[in-house]
Each structure stands twice: as structure tokens, then as C-alpha cells.
Amino acid sequence: MALEQSINADSKSKGGVVGITHNQSALQRWFLTAHERASVTTALKENMYAICDSDRMGTHKESQPKRVQRDEEDVKKIIACFSSNLMTNPFECDADNQLLNIATGVVLPPESAKSLLESTEIGKKNMEAFIQDRLNTNKVSFWEPLKQLKIKNFASTKKKITLKSTNEKVISIDADRNLFGRLLIVANSREVNLRDVLAYELSPVPLSLAHCDGSLRKTTKSVLMSVLEEKVRVSARLPVEPQDTKSIHLIDGMAVVQMMKSGNASTFGELANKFYAITTEPLLQNGCDRVDIVFNQYGDMSIKSHERSRRGSSSALEVKINSPSTPVPRQWAKYISNPRNKTNLCTFLTQALSELGRKKLPQGKCLVIGGGCSDGESSLHIRRDHPTVTLRDLQANHEEADTRLLFHAKHASKPDSRIIIHSPDTDVLVLGISFYVELGCKELWLRTGSKDRLRYIPLHEISTKVGPKICKALLAFYALTGSDVTSAFAGVGKKRAYNILEDSEIHQESLSQLGQITLTEDIIKQCVKFVFSLYPATKKTLSSMDKLRYLLFCQKRQKSEALPPTSDSFIQHLTRANYQTLVWRKSLVGNQDLPKPQCSGWKEEDGVLCPILMTSDPAPDSIIELTTCNCKKSLCRSTCLCAKNGLCCTEACFCMAEPGSCLNPHNTIYEDSDSEEEDDTT
């Protein structure tokens, strides 16, 4: 823009740069001397008319204050998408020749990625073969059709389903946003009730809850953290504690690993020493005598395994850490993406911290490690010059470190204690606010952020300000509007949804009932009413998600993904949200005793749990075939696909069902209103 307002502005002629001359050499000289003529023009304006560059600043439309402010806000939004992990940062991703979708994080299969990366070379080879076989020699006729290369791209990852039509013909349907409109055209021409049609997703996946490739829609979870932070005063340092108050720090171990990465360590022994120094730093403070480090579990049958497999977690080889001298892999991001490597690293760090703690821990202070043992359930109590002890009270089968942090907080809490949880995850903030009263501690803080964004959030103050009703409903609200394992509604953000929850005690009461082993009809109805409030209001009384979907389509002309899900898809989403809420509500219990995820909105495919997005067909039987003809000369008489299947032609066909160019006997003949008026006048 600086160039546009200086050299280019002074070089332009009255009619602009385009068309000043048709002489090529003159045009080249004009461009080569542009900067000299611009300097002469600038000097003339400054000396003769006292016009300086500062007087001209801001005249360009791109430099107007409102436009600059809007551009700055857009830049912040883009940065927030990457910093919140809503989208994959392409500049920090160690893809190792892998291609991934930065919006969904889905990794393109190796075979497809290889052909796509080598598409230029493949094209050149085919061009050379074309010249050699068809031009230089007569090996192949010049007029022979060219074979398609069929190079796969991200469109090949679209969700695809197969089902049978009315004539037992197996039909394959790809997830495509345009499919929604094409099916509506077919439904209109084949006299199907629009209300009944919109009771189906008209797509192999519910586009309001999932992307075309079947991956769940995500939302920026940190928005909710920002909304709740505004209710209290957040400080960059922890306030000075009274002398009679003891502090206990609880640390998410894998979050520290993700933060420090390899730590420029050459061996895993060096990495363990740096990890120990970071995690035991609070013990150097006077008021802290205990630090708990908690690790995640990475089982094969996890409700997160589907998302991990889609993001290419299995592409990295497993690395066994035999001793502290085992070298750290150079491609750290690829190494840590494999769940087995995470498990091996957690086990090694637990063993290393146990040995280091017995030698280096300050006297009278202890280190507790949970979830890092080989069984994934034991917790170790470590003190200097003392044997390591297994704590039976902290035996837990939690999969997530988020819930286990709260379980350890309950164990460490005393009426005069201060609990500080170290975690960057919004899930921990929501859990802390919800369970503060049950923990029984004096203060509960969340240490989050890094560098200049490092801050301490008083969760005890937030819990008191929002009140017990919101605290009870917050977990269900968080799961229903989008979490790590549940979908977010397209176009519905956390901030607006929370404001709706905060203003309605009815919704607070409704969501507080979510998190039961079985979903009752009453709970479903109450949750449906809350989802109604997330979408634009309608004048008519709503009774189901299908009716809301129909009315919004008719009144608001919403896109397919902006429409709410069908009742069938919503029930599956609600079932998963209920299961996740149940897991969170059992955070303070060691043995959670949860039902199988296969009965709560997931299914097992190839040894991996995948979400059940919907159970009904994507469209009614009458339009499921989506048969369209491409008749150009036959007038839909002999080779028409629609006529062969006993269906009428539609506007989606090449003939567009026009009476003059379509003689399909199954067509319904409509009289044109214009022709009727002409007949009346004659």
C-alpha cells in the first residue's frame, strides 16, 4: 500500500497506466524511469504547493481508520483460529510430506498424497507419451480418447455410504454440499412433500454437525474461557497467601510435554531432567509442600481414537525408550502424534521422576504422579530418601487427565488449602468451576497461558458469581455446544450460547439433568428446547427439530449446514453429549464405572470407535436414487435412465423435463399459466 500511495500515485497519467501507449519499448522505458519521475513530481509538489507525503496519507481506501481496524480484527480472528487449535497451523506442522486439511486436520492417505504431490511429473510423462505415440509415431491414433489420470485429492476423503433403492439396486452417495440442492429439485419434480423431505439430512452426513469427510465440527472452546474470565479479576501473578494457607499444585503432564516439546534435548534422560525442573519448580516456594503430576491414558478403544486416526496419528513408528541414553527423535511432532509413543513417554517420565525425586526433592515435600504407571491406574507418592509408595486412595481408571486432576484435587483439598491447577485446556476451567464447592478447598486457581499471556484465574470466584444453577448445568452445556469428542452446531458459537443459558433459569434446570446413564424422553425434550433457542426465532410453536429445520429453510433461506440437524442426527449428538457429561460428573470418583461407548453414540469400526452421525437414510426412497439423464438427441425415449427406472425427468436432467425436448412417459404434464392466458385471449 505504501508503494501504491507513493511511486504508483505519482507515475499515473490522467487516464491511468493502462492504454498510455502501444509502443512496447516506450512502455518499458516508462516503467524503468517511474521512480525518477515520481521523485521529481514529489519534489515539485513539496516546493511549489507545500504538499508533503503526510498530507496524502490516509487517502487510500485501504488506509481509512475503520478499514484498518476491521483488517486488524480479521487478523486477530485468524490468529485465534490457529492458537486455539481450531485449525492446524501450517507453519508449525511437521507434516513430513503429508498433506492435511488445515480446517479439519484430516490427513490425506499416503497413496493419494503421493499421487497429488507428483501430479506435475505424472502430467509431464503423459504429455511426452502423447507426443511420442500420437505425433512422432502412429502407434496410437491422434483421435483416440485420452485416459483420465484420476489423481485423488481431499474430495476422495468425503464420507460415502451405500444403500439399496426400491428396486434393490445398490447406490453409493458421496457427501457433497451441492447434493442438498439437487435432492430438493428432484423432490419438487417428483411430488414429494417438502416437510417430509427436510426430515432427512439430504446428505450422507449431518452437515450442521460434521464436515463432508465425516469429521466432527469444532468450535473455539477458548471463547468460553474469555467470557468467564470477564466476570473476575485475572492476575499475572498468584496473590500472596496467608501464612496458615498451604498450596498444592496440580500439573497436566502431557500439557507440559506439548509445551516444552523436545526441549532441545538429545536424549530422553536430558528431557526427563528438564521436565523435572519445570514440574517441581512450585516446591521451591515456601507455602507449597506437594505437587501432583497427572498423565492421560491412550487406549485403543477410546472415544478420541477416531479423531486421532483421522489426523494421521498412526503414521509415526513406535519408539521404545530402553534407557535414559535413548536419543530423542528429530521429528518430534511426528513422534508425539502416535498414542503408543505418548504412553511409552509417560511411563518413562514416571520412572525417571521417581528416581530424581528420591535424590533431589526438598526435605519435607512430596511429589505425586498419577496415570503414568504401566497399568495406567496407580498413583505414586515420592519423597526424598524414602521408598516410593503406591497410594490406594488415588487408584483411578480415568482416561483423561482433566478429570483426574479434579480427583487429585479432592484428595489434596483441606478447608484452609489453596489448589492451583496448571492446564491450558478450557475443559479444566469448566470442571473446576463446576466442582469447586464439592472440593472443599479455600481457593481454587487455574494457571493457564504462556509468556505474556500467563495468568491465574480464580475459579472459586467465578463459581460463586455464576451461582449453583449454572455450575450444575455448565458441564452439559459445554458438551452439547462442542467439546473434544462432541460436535459443535455450525454457526453457533460458545459466547452467544452461554448468554442464552445465563438468561434462562429454565434452560439451566434442563441441562443440569443431563449426564445420566440413560436418556429419558423428558430430558430429551428439555434439551431440544435449549437447542431451539440457539437458532433464529420463528413465530410458530416448535415441536421437533425437523419442524424447526423446515421453518428455517422456508423463512430464512438458510444453507444446508446452517440448518439445524434432523431429529435423528440430534438424538445421536445428544447421546454422545450425555455420555461425555456423565464422564465429567464422575470426576471425583476413582472408579468411574461407565457404560460402554458403543451404547452411547459410538460404534466400532476396524478396532476404532467412530461416532454414529445418523441412523436413518439420507433421503426418502422416492428420491434416493437421484437418477438424472443426459439425453441430448433421443428425447428421453430409448436410452433415458429416468424412464428405465420408472421416474420422471427433473430440472437436474440435461433435458430439464421440457415438453418439447423430453418425451419421458412418466413425466407429469403441467400446463403453463402463460399459455392458458393466451388461449383465453384468443
Structural commentary:
- The structure is a single chain.
- With about 675 residues, this protein is of the alpha/beta class.
- Among the domains are: about 1-65, no CATH class; about 220-465, Rossmann fold; about 625-680, no CATH class.
- The protein contains 27 helices and twelve strands.
- The strands form three sheets. Strands 7-6-5-4-3-8-9-10 form an eight-stranded mixed β-sheet, sandwiched between helices.
- Helix 17 runs parallel beside helix 18, helix 18 (about 425-440) packs antiparallel against helix 20 and helix 20 crosses helix 25.
- The chain is globular, with a radius of gyration of 32 Å.
- Residues about 165-175 and about 670-680 have low confidence and may be disordered.
The CATH class label of the domain at 222-466 is Alpha Beta
Major beta sheet summary = 8 strands, mixed
Overall geometry: globular
Could you give the distance between the termini?
A: 66 Å
Q: What fraction, in percent, of the residue positions are helical?
A: 40-55%
Give the low-confidence spans. Answer: 163-175, 670-682
* Structure annotation, total helices: 27
Q: How would you concisely characterize the structure shown here?
A:
With 682 residues, the protein is α/β, with parallel strands linked by helices. Helices cover 41% and strands 9% of the residues. The chain has an eight-stranded mixed β-sheet with strand order 7-6-5-4-3-8-9-10, with helices on both faces.
